[in-house]
Amino acid sequence: MRAWAVIETGKPLKEIELPTPEPKGAEVLLEVTHAGVCHSDLHIWEGEYDLGSRGKMRLTDRGVVLPLAMGHEIVGRVVKLGPDAAGQGSKVGDLRLVYPWVGCGKCKACQADEENMCLTPRSLGVYQNGGYATHVLATHVKHLIDIEGVDPALAATYACSGVTVYSAINKLLPLDPDEAIVVVGAGGLGLNAIAVLKALGHRRICVVDVAEDKLAAAREQGATETVLASAEGTTQRIIEACGGPVAGVVDLVNGTQTARFAFDALRKGGKLVQVGLFGGEMSIPLPLMPIRALTVQGSYVGNVKELRSLIDIAKAGKIPGIPVAREPLRNADAVLNRLREGKIVGRVVLTSDTA
Fold first, then answer.
1. What burial class does residue 277 get, using C-beta atoms within 10 Å of its C-beta: 0-12 exposed, 13-18 middle, 19+ buried?
2. Helices (H), strands (E): how many in the chain?
3. Do 141 and 246 have their domain in common?
4. In this structure, is residue 73 part of a structural domain?
5. Mind listing the pLDDT tens digit for each residue in 46-81?
6. 125 with 32: CB under 8 angstroms?
7. Is residue 86 domain-shared with residue 189, that is, in the same domain?
8. Is residue 214 located within the same domain as residue 283?
9. Contact assessment for residue 35 and residue 130, using Cβ atoms and an 8 Å cutoff
10. What is the helix, strand, coil percentage profile of the chain, to 5?
11. Which helix (H) or strand (E) holds 262?
12. Which of 22, 183, 267, 345 has the fewest CB atoms within 10 Å, i.e. is most exposed?
């Protein structure tokens, strides 16, 4: 199979030939038709996370091995089933969304279909080859989801962008539909967060970003308020836009500055859900945590149960689509550079010649 792979961190992706996997057990081989380009791919490509005063965390220290075909937002067509995968809902020729956040398959978390919480992850596009390739190996047939009736390019974004915000939002809900929820970041995740909130019946959505064109896209998507972030005064502008301190914030950037202004904007009993991987560190005035009964919680992607639920909502036509641009798989490196430069509104999905 052909892959557009990271050979050396921070260097251009290279087109290489890799052995086409042979599915074993309940594994399934798919021909990739669509692969979303996610901001997380930038961190994998660059090879490290910023831990603030603790320095850098290199991904090779976490078990990432190069060369690696990234890409975890994958739709593909089934080409071969492992011997134990037959008769379990997918057959050769089916178009399927692939759940990528897989684990060891044996621990309690994996057996409960909560593999994103596995302590020995094997995520597609991170610890094993993903969607920036002509073929991908799904580790179990149960990770394939029927997307009939949903645009496959849009459906690909739900495997990370969609399920990530869906899981994070569900850590805030239930709230009164007219209680402001703040979404920090108006990229692909932010636009999907607006879409999912609207699908779940939430009416008050305030979006914060540093770029006015992305805030314009957020308003077009359905944000009721938008705030332009800057080095100073962002907290106050959020409070003014929302009519007071807020009950919940989903920080899809999660850098030092965003964490601070998001925390400071919370009302008594409020919750900050941290999703993004921008990096840095957070300094919290500790007495305020109990005095104001605040919660700060991390949220890591989502599980396959949540992805199935999200796709059911999409099939019912309740999730507004986000802007999705299509590019050939061979343009993966150029798309990553555009994403790094902040030049992408919405999501770019790489497509095969047969998509």
1. middle
2. 11, 17
3. no
4. yes
5. 998 888 999 988 888 888 999 999 999 999 999 999
6. no
7. no
8. yes
9. yes
10. 30, 25, 45
11. helix 256-264
12. 22
From the list 90, 112, 114, the residue with the least C-alpha distance to 102 is 114
Same domain, 279 and 265: yes
Strand pairing category for 225-228 and 205-209:
parallel
d(CA 255, CA 43): 13
Contact in structure between 156 and 180 (CB atoms under 8 Å) = no
The answer on 294 and 306 residing in a single domain is no
Preceding omega of 67 cis (within 30 degrees of 0): yes
Question: How would you classify residue 144: left for phi > 0, otherwise alpha for psi between -120 and 50, otherwise beta?
Answer: beta
pTM over 0.90: yes
Q: Name which of 287, 351, 295 is nearest 325 in CA terms.
A: 351
Residue type, 217: A
Rounded to whole angstroms, how far apart are CA atoms 328 and 326? 7
At 293, give phi and psi (nearest 5°): 50, 50
Kindly calculate the radius of gyration of the chain based on its CA atoms and give it in whole angstroms: 20
Q: How far apart are CA 304 and CA 163, in angstroms?
A: 9
Alpha-carbon span 199 to 302, nearest angstrom:
18
pLDDT single digits (tens) 3-25 = 999 999 999 999 999 999 999 99
Instruction: Count structural domains, the chain.
Output: 2
For residue 312, pLDDT over 90 is answered with yes
Residue 44: C-alpha distances to residues 9, 13, 76, 324 (Å): 8, 12, 22, 22
Q: What gap in Å lies between CA 266 and CA 272, rounded to an integer? A: 8
Q: What range defines the domain where residue 37 resides?
A: 2-161+302-351
DSSP state, residue 332: H
| The total number of residues written for the chain in this structure | 355
